[in-house]
Amino acid sequence: MRTTPRPRRTRGIRRALTGTLLAGLTLLTTASPAVADDPSASASPAGDEAGPTEAGTTFRTATALKQGQSGIAQASAGDYLYWVFPADAGQRPTVRATVKLPESAARRGTSTWQVDVYDGLRRRQACMYGHQTRKAAADAATVELSCVLRPVRSWSEPWANDPLPGSYYIRLAVVDLPAADLGLPVGVQVRTSTKEVGGSHDGDGTLSEPLVPGVSVASTNETGETGEADDGGPSAAPRTVATGEPEDGWASGWWTDRWLWTVGGGVLAALAAVFGYSLTRGRGRPSHVPPGV
């Protein structure tokens, strides 16, 4: 007797499952990085918005900037200038500074300028790349500085120095200057921008409060645990602090695009299980073998 040829439907199912698996793997491995690393993506929804016309001289008096905002200031060579701006989880902040130097006839030599960025705990944050320190020649008109920070994480270990949601301080100063050039007038412009990098850098937890100076005191007063804030008494403190926060508020921390990766991985695992079963179940009982044999 001739056996019945194997149905083509099984091979069609296998091909369909194989194509689905390959398409899903390609989507997960290429789509998200392309969005995160696209250099043409908008750095900030607010754009390059005009900002304040002065700078602080200490951490406490730092001038507040919004995300995507620029600020200018007139200062003297040798001054320390401070600004502060907010950054939330899933964002990669970038700081750029331009120093307009005095006329070359008034200068005595080269100078070296540096921009540093500190988080809400005043921990100096390392730059991923950029020109954080630059030397200006004696005849240079301007000097350009930049610092691209690591992506801000929603949570990290207490001993780690990872960027966390909260305030970020910019400090601009000259680190090497001839003594005769101290006090010469300079013009400074700083620009901040943020880029969304998605949930690939998220941690497994969230902070109870962003690292913003004074936010814990304001929250405590709001709950009425340390004073008569519920009655509107003198111990009440406003929730909004001087350093500001993102326009759409701080991230809640429960939603991240890692959920999409989790769901996609579950779907691919289910498809792989069906595909494996179709390969290993066999052809069943041959048609020429009677039942019960």
UniProtKB/TrEMBL annotation:
Where are the residues of the annotated region Disordered? Answer: 35-55, 194-248
Q: Where is the signal peptide?
A: 1-36
Q: Does the keyword Transmembrane apply?
A: yes
Q: Where is the composition biased (Low complexity)?
A: 35-52
Q: Where are the transmembrane segments?
A: 259-279
Keywords assigned: Membrane, Signal, Transmembrane, Transmembrane helix
Does the keyword Lipid metabolism belong to this entry? no
Per its record, how is this protein called by name?
Secreted protein
Natural source organism: Streptomyces durocortorensis
